[in-house]
């Protein structure tokens, strides 16, 4: 996940552990890909043979992704990126002087849309974590962001977050495939195989 500072002590983030993204990076490496892993702050070690680029904020992730995408064949956007950041980060710790606190937030740049505009021919795979209407929201994001594929998962109590298992529904323009619940490593390997199949299908032979 990314972090957006509120003051020098506090920040906005989400419940993602990064485990699924790291597992996907490992699975793609196992298939022979040269993998660069752009990672927010996590309590995970970089997989062997994978180049890790460490970032903290959504804007830093965008900059790193644009730089890496310029020389990439494939982008898998599995990170849980903050949608909003503080309009003004407090220079000092905010004190408890009142019973309520209002924060002014502004929208972060859309990483997928920005990368797609810069790299129209790049094969791009997005992720979507949804609490409802998974297929509807995933297909909407697939079309709206001009993605080649999207992997969607249901989140909530006991689902995806705070557990070592996951299940995915993967969509592309004219099809879909379910990846049944299993360890995040097993799910990642099935997803990597599916991505590789569609990438090779979409890429003209040299």
Description:
There is one protein chain. The protein has one domain (about 5-200): CoaB-like (Rossmann fold). It is about 30% helix and about 25% strand. The chain has five helices and eleven strands, in the order ββαββαβββαβαβββα. It has helices at about 20-30, 60-70, 110-120, 135-145, 185-200; strands spanning about 5, 10, 35-40, 50-55, 75, 85, 105, 125-130, 150-155, 165-170, 175-185. The strands form four sheets. A five-stranded mixed β-sheet has the order 5-8-9-10-11. Helix 1 (about 20-30) packs across helix 5. The radius of gyration is 18 Å and the shape is globular. The relative contact order is 0.16. The model has no long low-confidence stretch (mean pLDDT about 95).
What's the number of helices?
Answer: 5
CATH architecture title: 3-Layer(aba) Sandwich
> How would a textbook summarize the main sheet?
5 strands, mixed
Strand order of the largest sheet: 5-8-9-10-11
Helix content: 25-40%
- The CATH topology label is Rossmann fold
Shape: globular
The gyration radius over C-alpha positions equals: 18 Å
The mean pLDDT is 95
Q: What's the SSE pattern?
A: EEHEEHEEEHEHEEEH
Q: CATH class, please?
A: Alpha Beta
CATH homology group: CoaB-like
Could you give the count of β-strands? Answer: 11
Low-confidence stretches: none
**What number of structural domains do the residues give?**
1
Structural class: alpha/beta
Distance between the termini: 37 Å
- Strand percentage lies at 25-35%
């Amino acid at each position: 996940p990314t972090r957006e500072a509120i003051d020098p002590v506090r920040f906005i983030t989400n419940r993602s552990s990064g485990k699924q993204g790291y597992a996907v990076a490992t699975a793609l490496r196992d298939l022979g890909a040269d993998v660069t892993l752009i990672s927010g702050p996590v309590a995970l070690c970089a997989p062997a043979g994978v180049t890790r680029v460490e970032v903290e904020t959504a804007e830093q992730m965008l900059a790193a992704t644009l730089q890496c995408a310029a020389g990439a064949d494939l982008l898998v956007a599995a990170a849980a990126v903050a949608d909003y950041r503080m309009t003004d980060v407090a220079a000092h710790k905010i004190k408890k002087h009142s019973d309520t606190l209002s924060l002014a937030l502004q929208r972060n740049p859309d990483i997928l849309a920005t990368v797609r505009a810069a790299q129209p021919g790049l094969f791009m795979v997005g992720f979507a974590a949804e609490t409802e209407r998974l297929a509807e929201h995933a297909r909407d994001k697939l079309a709206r962001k001009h993605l080649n594929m999207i992997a969607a998962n249901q989140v909530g109590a006991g689902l995806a977050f705070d557990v070592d298992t996951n299940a995915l529904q993967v969509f592309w323009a004219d099809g879909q495939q379910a990846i049944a619940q299993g360890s995040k490593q097993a799910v990642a390997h099935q997803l990597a195989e599916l991505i590789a199949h569609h990438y090779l299908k979409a890429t003209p032979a040299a």
